[in-house]
Specification:
Blueprint: H1 3-13, E1 20-22, E2 29-31, H2 37-46, E3 54-62, H3 64-67, E4 69-78, E5 83-92, E6 102-104, H4 113-124, E7 127-129, E8 157-158, E9 161-162
Length: 181
């Protein structure tokens, strides 16, 4: 089944959704509102014509303060049908109060999402509502901020220990085997 056929099944199942498609790249992407991502993923997983049984990865993108948006991209595979499909949601970086963006979890659909969502939370600051164990996965629990966000400001010290940077100043690439990440 190709991208257009899969998209047609989704549109038929969810006619009320405002979905869009980005087909200008070699791998087309279906764009779904973040509020509906879990129910669309559930359909992709459970419908016998599709059966996307493997979530390969979840990728988070920060488009920066200029665009003020972030994206969560879901790459999935139907092993029996040997088909790949990609969907994404685009949403504001923070709400008006400055809180982290919230996206529904898909961990109840694919267990592998538990790890991917924890990584996106830890490094990008995206909160996955309904996740069974949403906590940091790579950084210490007391780490401040989310270091892959484009507006992240590196700290000069962590627990009183100076963090070395390539040019000697915060905000630059960490170097050496002894860096705190």
């Amino acid at each position: 089944m190709n991208f257009q056929e899969i998209t047609s099944l989704i549109v038929a199942r969810f006619p009320e959704l405002a979905i869009d498609a980005d087909t200008k790249n070699p791998q087309p992407v279906l764009i779904v509102p973040k509020e509906n991502i879990a129910e669309v993923c559930q359909f992709l997983h459970e419908d016998n014509r599709l059966f996307f049984d493997f979530l390969a990865c979840i990728t988070a993108i920060d488009n920066g303060p200029g665009l003020a948006t972030m994206e969560v991209i879901y790459n999935m595979t139907s092993i029996p049908y040997q088909t790949d499909f990609t969907i994404k949601s685009v949403f504001p970086r923070n709400n008006p109060e400055g809180d982290l963006p919230v996206v529904p979890t898909v961990s109840h659909i694919w267990r592998t999402a538990e790890w991917h969502e924890r990584e996106a939370y830890d490094l990008m600051g995206i909160y996955f509502e309904g996740h069974p164990d949403l906590r940091r996965i790579l950084l210490p629990e007391d780490w401040e901020g989310h270091p892959l966000r484009k507006d992240y400001q590196a700290r000069e010290r962590y627990h009183g220990i100076y963090v070395r940077y390539e040019d000697g100043g915060p905000g630059q690439e960490l170097v050496g085997p002894d860096h705190t990440l």
